[in-house]
Design goal:
The complex is a heterodimer of chains A (259) and B (270). With 259 residues, chain A is of the alpha/beta class. Helices cover 39% and strands 23% of the residues of chain A. In chain A, helix 3 runs parallel beside helix 5 and helix 7 packs across helix 9. The longest helix of chain A is centred in the C-terminal third of the chain and has 22 residues. Chain A is globular. The N and C termini of chain A lie far apart (48 Å). Chain B is flat. Chain B starts with 10 loop residues before the first helix and ends with a helix. Classes of the chains: A alpha/beta (259), B mainly alpha (270). At the A-B interface, helix 3 of A face helix 7 and helix 8 of B.
Chain lengths: 259, 270
């Protein structure tokens, strides 16, 4: 179901700015292009407008100026999956119904999509918890449900807004691997917002380093390591070198503002 | 330092929670009985507890009819308050214009003592309608206010999620706003149940002096004129019991609806 052929841009922002109602400029001008099938991270200090950029891509916000082009945007509800910083589950619905939500809002009957919801749950290893309620799950499991919900529509583009920031490190590492695995199997476009240098290096093919508000791209660091990464990558010299590069780029981005 | 005792849980604690109010009641009734006996108080001043109970049994025919009448009024007022309060809150949520136009008057209706409105309503409306209207006036505001609060506390991210997946207004209402507001709505209904009983009683008292009532409050007023104090107490006892039953029923409803997911209901179970 790939709408964009590999190599072409799946997301392109050109001269995008976003100004808050109180006149503060949150973002931009921002120019960036994400290739179809690519895994990129937006890395920057908190308040730099990373989340705003992601919401612009999702169409949840309109840019004050500039152009946001997203492949398949004419049918956003099918082409984009979004994962929030919090699990954002409906507490009154069980896991299965939470994952079913995007399809239910498309008025697809339960009987016709049963397999798709089951598959999405199996994908994140939560088949046994289909009937559980969110309150009965751990933080990591809730995030998995959130991930399954974003993937149930089989979107071409997956947008994640610091999804693992609130989790403990052990759970985060595990979910990092799961996310890489999901990405490798589907080759969908992923934009991952984070404030962790290590997470961005571990996951991405390219890291977009952003300046403090108003956020702009100050550096693009290519992580040219083998995309088939696993835990051994975390302890490799290659990983350390990339982390050093990205840390330096981040230091430069924040220093320009302080000066 | 002593070891801290757990706040809840433990069988002895549960037993204590049940026994203490029962013991308080027994002590109160005993004191009441002693005061009546030792002072040789005549029944038209203060009837003893036993006399009140026998009156309740003897007058059960007349009192039960009155109880039914009051309960019907209360139920009608409660239903009108529930439907009206919830519907108005949803309307306010959909349209700011309606909210700005009507909200001040909803507050005015709430702050004006219903006892002062009741005589006027009885002039302009048929008696039963006037009584139900009183019950509605007293009970609808907490439903409106709580439902509004509930609708305004919908999770911001969930709202964005629904927007992302192109939810229609109806879908957002039914699948997001209503379930989000449900705990608040049920809280409002719990208050409204007791208040509609109060509204019904106030209206019956106001109507009672006009002489056409048949509810429990009318029975109390009538018995007062006739110095039938034991029956006054018996009717009061029934009103009190009705209020408690209404509260417990609505609490149970709330618990059953929310028990699977809401914190307020979970605390009681575990």
């Amino acid at each position: 179901m790939q709408l964009v052929s590999p190599g072409r841009a799946a997301i392109r922002l050109s001269g995008v700015t976003r100004v808050f109602a109180n006149g503060v400029q949150a973002l931009g001008p921002l120019d960036l292009s994400v290739k179809a099938g690519e895994f990129v991270s937006l890395l920057g200090p908190s308040g730099c407008g990373k989340s705003t950029a992601l919401r612009l891509m999702a169409g949840l916000l309109a840019p004050t100026s500039g152009a946001v082009e997203v492949a398949g945007a004419e049918d956003r509800r099918r082409s984009i999956g979004f994962v929030f910083q919090e699990p954002t589950l409906m507490p009154w619905a069980n896991v299965w119904d939470n994952v079913y939500l995007p399809l239910r809002l498309q008025r697809l009957a339960r009987a016709t999509i049963r397999d798709r919801v089951d598959a999405a749950l199996a994908n994140v290893g939560l088949s046994e918890f289909a009937r559980a309620y969110p309150r009965e799950l751990s933080g990591g499991m809730k995030m998995r449900v959130s991930l399954a919900r974003a993937l149930v529509t089989d979107p071409d583009i997956l947008l994640l807004d610091e999804p693992f920031a609130a989790l403990d490190e052990i759970t985060r590492f595990k979910l990092n691997n799961d996310l890489l695995d999901l990405w490798r199997r589907s080759q969908r476009t992923v934009v991952f917002v984070t404030h962790s240098v290590f997470e961005s290096v571990y996951l991405s093919q390219r890291v977009f380093v952003m300046t403090p508000r108003p956020g702009r791209i100050s550096d693009i660091v290519a992580i040219d390591a083998d995309p088939l990464r696993d835990e051994s990558f975390r302890t490799s010299a290659d990983y350390a070198a990339h982390c050093r590069d990205v840390s330096r780029a981040l230091a430069r981005a924040t220093a320009t503002e302080a000066a | 330092m002593s070891t801290p005792t757990p706040i809840a849980g433990g069988r002895s604690f549960q037993a204590l929670r049940f026994c203490l109010p029962v013991l308080t009641l027994a002590a109160g009734v005993l004191a009441w009985d002693l005061i009546v006996r030792l002072n040789h108080l005549p029944p038209y001043t203060l009837p003893g507890p036993w006399l009140v109970l026998t009156t309740l049994v003897q007058d059960w025919g007349i009192l039960s009819r009155s109880l039914l009448s009051t309960l019907v009024t209360t139920f009608q007022g409660f239903l009108a308050a529930a439907v009206g309060g919830i519907a108005l809150a949803f309307l306010f949520n959909r349209s700011r214009l309606v909210e700005y136009s009507l909200y001040p008057y909803a507050i005015m209706l709430q702050v004006t003592p219903v006892i002062a409105i009741a005589p006027l309503l009885l002039i302009y409306l048929p008696q039963q309608v006037a009584v139900v209207t009183c019950a509605w006036i007293v009970a609808f505001f907490p439903v409106l206010a709580n439902t509004t609060l509930g609708l305004n506390s919908v999770d911001r991210n969930l709202k964005e999620l629904f927007a992302l997946y192109g939810a229609t207004g109806g879908q957002a209402l039914w699948r997001l706003k209503l379930p989000s507001a449900l705990p608040h709505i049920l809280g409002g209904l719990r208050i409204a149940g007791g208040l509609s009983l109060i509204g019904a009683v106030v209206a019956e008292i106001a109507a009672g002096s006009a002489g056409a009532g048949s509810g429990l409050a009318y029975r109390i007023a009538e018995s007062g004129y006739r110095l039938n104090i034991p029956r006054m107490f018996a009717a009061l006892l029934l009103l009190c019991a009705a209020g408690v039953v209404i509260f417990l029923t609505l609490s149970l409803l709330s618990h059953l609806v929310l028990r699977r997911w809401h914190e307020s209901a979970l605390g009681k179970e575990s």
